[in-house]
Write a structure and sequence with these properties.
The chain has one domain: Dynein light chain 2a, cytoplasmic (Beta-Lactamase), CATH 3.30.450.30. The radius of gyration is 13 Å and the shape is globular. It has a five-stranded antiparallel sheet with strand order 2-1-5-4-3, sandwiched between helices. The protein is of the alpha+beta class.
């Protein structure tokens, strides 16, 4: 268990959340996962690795622009969103369908980060 276990479980239960997980910021490996994506383990691993990589690149760009660390990152696509919040050695990742309550998901992810 991590300090984010309860948040990951709660996020995974929200309507429109396909997956919620805690991922190693450096290696992209899943530390823990909610109930989303069912048996799609390979897709989940790829999503985790991609999210950690994108977050690291966003952090570099943010540092180069002298903006500090990214707080919340959202990749918006035709059929959904990939949301990532940095939390030290891990990133919180949520894979979300279009039409989901983005405000609630964002607030929950940021609250978990701030309460660690």
């Amino acid at each position: 268990m991590t300090p984010f276990t309860e948040t990951i479980r709660n996020l995974a239960r929200l309507p429109g959340v396909r997956a919620a997980m805690t991922v190693g910021a450096e290696d992209g490996l899943i530390v823990e996962s909610g109930d989303g994506l069912g048996g799609e383990q390979l897709a989940r691993r790829h999503t985790a690795a991609l999210a950690a990589y994108l977050y690291s690149r966003a952090a570099r760009a943010s540092a180069a622009a002298r903006l500090g660390n990214p707080v919340f990152m959202r990749l918006e696509a035709d059929r959904g969103h990939l949301c990532v919040v940095g939390a030290g050695e891990v990133v919180l990742v949520a894979l979300i369908e279009s039409g989901a309550n983005m405000g609630r998901i964002r607030l929950d992810m940021l609250a978990a980060r701030n309460n660690q």
